[in-house]
């Protein structure tokens, strides 16, 4: 890290990066709100007719003093509104100064009343306006109502307009039912819509809720979203309406190349139009996230930077001093540090993304030069020598630096993975014990869990009557339900990632339908498979579900399954492509505010960071060690290759396009062994016909099926990998990969009794070597029996989460297709290996 005086390229500002968009405006175009109008039946009533109507139920109810105050305020407001032009009360209200804002709307009628010899009260005017709104005489605007007309608006509108509609929504059952307090505030949001638009609950349209969402205060935004969810749950909106309004006002969606360029305020209009045309040409051949990054590199880091340091520049022909200065600026970035004394310090360090910026600029110039040959009238005037040479884009050094950093992370984190796994399970157990103690205690009581004392609140607004937040002895508030959620998904994330090596994007898209099964035609045994949706490389792949992974998946499914036994289908937002995915039964979802939402990547990372903070694991410098989700992918591949998995098989499992990418993940595998294996594969491919890598013979198929049949043993099933031989000389009772079930318990007990007898005989005869070996077998037998007992206790326990065996795993049966189609995922493995015994 060095200090330099070279002017730096300023990264795009937050304002430039944010895109005001498009999504909510597009929805308003598709689903327009209702117009409140200025002329309807009740607003044309005369003053006497309005007052007579207010003297009738449901407007006349409650205390006499309350009704009298409302009538006094209504009479004064009606006389005041008569001083303005208009044929209806709504037209007069729109012409009055009170309709402009709700902050001080009472000032004008108060001054008028005092001038005419009356003594109006501010509270009386508010009550009078409330009853006029409930009687649908006046309809204030949605923005006016956003700050709330009265704290009693919901009760008054409900009684006067649609008591049945409000009652139906209050009693509606939703996934993750919200508490009464949140439901009441959501109903208040709907009352605002009725006050502004008229009608009943069933008359509310999508555009009405969207309009309220636009003007809602930050504190009431979540209530508006819940109100939309309540209406959506009763099927009130059309099928093409948005499934949720969660954060929709913040989503810009995909924007045009012109909008991407205009984020950076390019001064030179011809260059701006050129950049827009270039991005438009590239748009069909790249995905959206690549297009956004390309616009940032070309416009933000290249041309906008040139305009800042060379005002008035208008040509792609760059002088040598301009070119060299830009390269110097782009090579480093500014880093701000806080000194121990509290002051700030600024230093510079190499920019990791400088290579990608130079490559984007070089590609920009070369593309224009090539396109100029086909369309000289369009691109020819802009053809210019590229300021970035081929040597500037050499990726060898940068690749070595990336590989070194990745290897260092993997070497540092691989040894601590077992400790992390144990810590995640322990943290989940402790979080559940705290939550169970909370559920069993009474309101206002004090509980002690794991040496800590907590005090429960004296009241709760939750529908089940059980609180979630407590106060520790130190005065710190704790939310046991949130802690248990984070602990569970932290444990699930660690287990799934370390057993599969999938990407974080693939983990988020993991759904109930991702678990499929294949039934062996000969034995009928069900083989569970995990289907990984296409992500980075657009390649779908299948992974064999191990018993440990099945345990985790079953726990997640049991947690998110609804009362009807199904995993709820929810929409999710693709942060990269800026589009909404269709509803899917995602496994990574939870209920927030009565609405099922996907768990964000930020929450997944937070759960990992919290877990690591609890473990106290530190790095070489003594700082807390951090894990990124991608670290588990590197560890998975490294550990697999270290334990003998051929690299080309690891490539298919990981979903890499090139084996070189897979080799880059293997941080500790010896380089000479890698090269030797790759040379062996190359020589064998040169000698054998290419067709053997693309087809599977009947003998190979039968051999593959026979492997699962030969796994059946007297004591259970052998879980060793396909094509591998037994390395324990068939000492199955000692083997850790022996899978035992409750049916094998009698035989294991018989073996245990026999071992006790043999140990007694060996001790009597002085055969000490036999005593030692027989004791090992006895310990392994006791462990197997303990495993059976533990599984049976879990199944009979009322808190059993549904941990399955292979035959009980909650999967959907796949149709039995042609046998070679069923072997397709294994073809992908054997296509690189060439021989069945290497799968």
Structure, briefly:
It contains 34 helices and 17 strands. The protein has about 850 residues and is an alpha+beta fold.
Quick one: overall form? globular
Coarse structural class: alpha+beta
Helix percentage range: 40-55%
Mean pLDDT: 80
- Report the sheet with the most strands, covering strand number, pairing sense and barrel closure: 4 strands, antiparallel
Strand content: 5-15%
| Distance between the first and last residues' Cα | 47 Å
Overall number of structural domains: 4
Strand order of the largest sheet: 3-4-5-6
Question: Any idea what the radius of gyration is?
Answer: 35 Å
Count of runs of 4 or more consecutive helical residues: 34
Name the poorly predicted regions.
1-21, 799-839
* Secondary structure tally: strands: 17
């Amino acid at each position: 890290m060095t200090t330099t005086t070279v002017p730096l390229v300023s990264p795009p500002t937050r304002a430039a990066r944010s895109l005001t968009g498009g999504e909510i405006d597009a929805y308003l175009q598709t689903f327009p709100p209702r117009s409140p109008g200025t002329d309807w039946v009740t607003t044309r009533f005369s003053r006497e007719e309005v007052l007579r109507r207010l003297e009738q139920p449901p407007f006349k109810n409650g205390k006499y003093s309350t009704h009298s105050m409302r009538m006094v305020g209504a009479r004064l407001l009606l006389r005041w509104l008569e001083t303005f032009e208009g044929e209806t009360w709504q037209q007069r209200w729109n012409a009055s100064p009170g309709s402009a804002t709700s902050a001080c709307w009472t000032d004008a009628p108060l001054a008028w009343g005092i001038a005419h010899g009356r003594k109006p009260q501010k509270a009386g005017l508010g009550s009078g306006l409330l009853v006029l709104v409930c009687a649908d005489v006046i309809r204030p605007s949605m923005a006016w109502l956003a700050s709330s007309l009265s704290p009693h608006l919901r009760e008054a509108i409900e009684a006067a307009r649609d008591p049945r509609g409000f009652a139906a929504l209050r009693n509606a059952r939703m996934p993750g039912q919200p508490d009464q307090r949140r439901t009441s505030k959501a109903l208040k949001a709907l009352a605002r819509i009725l006050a502004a638009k008229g009608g009943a609950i069933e008359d509310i349209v999508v555009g009405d809720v969207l309009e309220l969402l636009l003007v809602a205060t930050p504190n009431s935004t979540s209530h508006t979203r819940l109100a939309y969810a309540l209406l959506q749950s009763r099927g009130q909106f059309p099928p093409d309406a948005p499934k949720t309004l969660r954060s929709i006002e913040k989503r810009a969606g995909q924007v045009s190349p012109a909008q991407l360029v205009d984020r950076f305020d390019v001064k030179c209009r011809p260059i701006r139009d050129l950049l827009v045309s270039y991005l438009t040409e590239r748009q069909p051949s790249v995905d959206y996230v690549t297009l956004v990054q390309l616009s940032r590199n070309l416009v933000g880091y290249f041309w906008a930077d040139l305009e800042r340091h060379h005002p008035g520049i208008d040509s792609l022909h760059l002088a040598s001093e301009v070119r060299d200065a830009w390269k110097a600026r782009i090579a480093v970035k500014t880093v701000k540090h806080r000194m121990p004394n509290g002051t700030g310090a600024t230093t510079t360090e190499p920019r990791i993304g400088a290579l990608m910026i130079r490559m984007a600029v070089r590609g920009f110039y070369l593309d224009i030069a090539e396109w100029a040959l086909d369309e000289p009238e369009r691109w020819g005037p802009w053809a210019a020598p590229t300021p970035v040479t081929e040597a500037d884009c050499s990726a060898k050094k940068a690749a070595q630096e990336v590989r070194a950093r990745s290897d260092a992370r993997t070497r540092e984190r691989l040894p601590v993975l077992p400790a992390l796994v144990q810590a995640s399970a322990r943290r989940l157990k402790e979080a559940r014990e705290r939550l169970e103690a909370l559920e069993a205690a009474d309101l206002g009581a004090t509980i002690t869990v794991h040496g800590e004392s907590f005090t429960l609140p004296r009241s709760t607004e939750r529908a089940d009557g059980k609180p979630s937040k407590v106060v520790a002895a130190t005065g710190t508030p704790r939310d046991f339900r949130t802690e248990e959620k984070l602990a569970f998904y932290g444990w699930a994330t660690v287990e799934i990632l370390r057993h599969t090596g999938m990407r974080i994007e693939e983990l988020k898209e993991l759904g109930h339908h991702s678990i499929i099964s294949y039934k062996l035609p000969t034995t009928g045994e069900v083989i569970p498979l995990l289907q990984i949706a296409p992500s980075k490389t657009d390649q779908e792949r299948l992974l064999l579900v191990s018993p440990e992974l099945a345990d985790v998946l079953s726990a997640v499914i049991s947690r998110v399954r609804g009362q009807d036994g199904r995993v709820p289908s929810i929409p999710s937002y693709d942060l990269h492509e800026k589009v909404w995915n269709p509803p899917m039964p995602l496994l990574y979802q939870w209920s927030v505010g009565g609405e099922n939402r996907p768990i964000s990547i930020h929450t997944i990372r937070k759960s990992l960071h919290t877990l690591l903070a609890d473990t106290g694991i530190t790095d070489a410098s003594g700082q807390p060690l951090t894990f990124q989700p991608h670290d588990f992918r590197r560890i998975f591949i490294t550990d697999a290759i270290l334990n003998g998995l051929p690299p080309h098989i690891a490539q298919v499992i990981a979903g890499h396009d090139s084996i070189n990418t897979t080799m880059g993940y293997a941080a500790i595998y010896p380089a000479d062994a890698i090269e030797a294996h790759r040379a062996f594969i190359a020589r064998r491919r040169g000698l054998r016909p290419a067709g053997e890598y693309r087809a599977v013979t009947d003998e190979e198929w039968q051999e593959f099926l026979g492997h699962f049949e030969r796994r059946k043993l007297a004591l259970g099933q052998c879980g060793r990998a396909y094509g591998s031989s037994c390395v324990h000389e068939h000492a199955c009772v000692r083997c850790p990969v022996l899978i035992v079930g409750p049916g094998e318990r009698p035989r294991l007990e018989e073996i245990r009794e026999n071992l006790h007898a043999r140990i007694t005989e060996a001790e009597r005869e002085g055969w000490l070597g036999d005593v030692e070996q027989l004791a090992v077998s006895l310990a392994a037998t006791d462990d197997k029996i303990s495993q059976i007992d533990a599984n049976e206790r879990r199944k009979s326990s009322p808190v059993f989460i549904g941990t399955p065996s292979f035959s009980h795993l909650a999967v959907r049966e796949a149709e039995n297709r042609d046998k070679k189609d069923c072997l397709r995922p294994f073809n992908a493995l054997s296509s690189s290996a060439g021989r069945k015994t290497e799968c």
